[in-house]
Design brief:
It contains 11 helices and 15 strands. With about 350 residues, the protein is an alpha/beta fold. The chain folds into 2 domains: about 5-100 and about 105-235, Type I PLP-dependent aspartate aminotransferase-like (Major domain) (Aspartate Aminotransferase, domain 2); about 240-355, Aspartate Aminotransferase, domain 1. A 7-stranded mixed β-sheet has the order 2-10-9-6-5-3-4, with helices on both faces. A 3-stranded antiparallel β-sheet has the order 8-7-12, with no helix packed on it. α1 runs antiparallel to α7 (about 225-235) and α3 crosses α4 (about 80-90). The longest helix has 18 residues, at about 240-255. It starts with a strand and ends with a helix. It binds pyridoxal-5'-phosphate (PLP). The site of pyridoxal-5'-phosphate has 14 residues, from α4.
């Protein structure tokens, strides 16, 4: 069976060696040495100055919205995983959707200003499939209208724009280290922030507001990751070059062998991408369904990421988003993971090409 993704599992003895350190210290959580070591390694790898590793990629979105959203209207993309929109509603803010750019699939920066009202407090946009939003345009709009910018960078591990980590853009960026993501800790995530004062607030917020055992520094929640999850991250970390190189091999194979009529995602200029997802867009949903059925018969299970468009789910306002709805109905993410078998790739490509 070939699924849309396969979790990268490091050699189990490498994982056990890290877990052994937790046993030796008898210390399983509350920012133990494994978490601190993983944070240092990731800071170096990503070339960022600040990181807080968290228990997943959703809690940091909630924390950022709690601190910056202020219960207002949040301008956001309808084309993302449901966590992006759900976090807004969960924090008692109101999602205001802006349609996406049909080429990069990120929020259409040219339509943002028309959606701003006196109640708008922030923009929450997703670097979907690791393809960054139009960072400069969004920064300029935010500055002009005094809005905060939060990036859901769950897919953007290791992505750079003009040589700089995408995690360094916006007021806060969040990432997911879920088992299905490019770099993972089983469950996990991170938040990034270059402003020292805001970083301080994010840090306290992810640990109940604790300022030492007896004092508090504002309201907080539990966003901490455990030593057992950090052990997984430390065991996966040395394999990042292999993970990315073998994903690149699969992406190149798809690029070169899939029928050239199939629409692909255009990676934005100036971006060094991470080969995190391989979406293809069919001309019609009926073709997508036929191709999926043919693939499923071969025990190949791509996924309809992202479907449905988030403006159509029951707890959102139901604004019409024609571009996002159209792409959501026609987009399929093909299997993509580390160390994919060349024969499997050939089989996927042949099945698709034969059913177009
Ligand atoms: C995976 C994902 C999340 C949520 O991350 P978790 O670690 O599963 O909580 C948020 N946003 C996007 C776009 C995602 O793909």
């Amino acid at each position: 069976m070939i699924n849309v993704t396969r979790t990268f599992l490091p050699p189990i003895d490498a994982y056990q060696q890290f877990v052994q350190r937790a046993w030796d210290k008898q210390w399983l959580t509350n920012r133990g040495e494994l978490v601190l070591e993983l944070e240092e390694k990731l800071k170096g790898y990503l070339s960022v100055n600040n990181i807080i590793i968290t228990n997943n990629g959703t809690v940091p979105l909630q924390i950022a919205l709690k601190l910056l959203g202020n219960g207002g209207e949040i301008i956001t993309t309808p084309f993302s995983y449901v966590a992006t929109t759900a976090a807004i509603v969960w924090e008692n803010c109101t999602p205001v959707f802006v349609d996406i750019d049909p080429v990069h699939f990120t929020i259409d920066e040219t339509k943002i200003e028309a959606a701003i009202t006196p109640r708008t407090t922030a923009i929450l946009a997703t670097h979907v499939f690791g393809n960054p939003c139009h960072l400069e345009a969004i920064e300029a709009i935010a500055k002009k209208h005094h809005l905060k910018v939060i990036y859901d960078a769950a897919h953007a591990f290791g992505v750079t724009y003009k040589g700089k980590s995408v995690f360094d853009f916006g007021d806060v960026s969040t990432c997911s280290f879920h088992a299905t993501k490019l770099f993972h800790t089983g469950e996990g995530g991170a938040m990034f922030c270059t402003d020292a004062a805001l970083f301080h607030k994010l840090f306290y917020s992810h640990n109940f507001g604790h300022n030492g055992p007896l004092a508090f520094h504002g309201l907080g929640v539990n966003g901490k990751i455990s030593e057992l999850q950090a052990a997984m991250g430390l065991a996966v970390f040395p394999h990042l070059a292999e993970i990315i190189a073998t994903r690149k091999f699969a992406v190149d194979f798809y690029d070169n062998h899939l029928n050239s009529q199939l629409q692909r995602m255009k990676i934005r200029e100036g971006v060094h991408w991470n080969y995190s997802y391989y979406p293809v867009i069919f001309e019609h949903e009926t073709t997508l369904l036929a191709v999926m059925e043919a693939l499923n018969k071969e025990s190949i299970f791509p996924r309809r990421y992202f479907y449905p468009s988030l403006n159509t789910i029951d707890y959102t306002a139901g604004q019409s988003m024609p571009v996002s709805e159209s792409i959501a109905a026609r987009i399929l993410c093909l299997p993509l993971y580390a160390n994919m078998d060349a024969a499997d790739l050939q089989r996927i490509v042949s099945t698709i090409n034969e059913n177009l």
